[in-house]
Amino acid sequence: MTDRHVTGSCLCGGVEYSVAEFIRPVVGCHCNQCRKTSGHFVAATKAQNRDLAMIRDDTLTWFRSSDAAERGFCSRCGSNLFWRQVDGDTTSIMAGTLDAPTGLELAFHIFKGSAGDYYEFNDGLPAYDEGGERL
Is beta strand 24-29 parallel, antiparallel or unpaired with respect to 106-110? Predict the structure, then answer.
């Protein structure tokens, strides 16, 4: 989806990375875990692990958020950076940590049923429930 490396980082610069190629557009995830880790909902893209290179990872910490997944964040500034399945070959990357221009667009929403009660879906994009059924 890109023809150049896109860089990204946490707020304090303790974690810096580069992405050679994305394998999907940005997805809005409204699940309870994403809302708790971000304070709202997560907007994330995804890359093969081989296409994600750490430039600096001095403060990168991984938290096992479930039996199947872990989340990468900066232990100094708290930036929510990554989500990956344990032993998987891809990593979701929080779109807000990418440096512009990315060439990416928000494509759809998932876990709409878990969304907070203080916002509405009015961007016209497709939305799916927890089971993947389009709403």
Answer: parallel
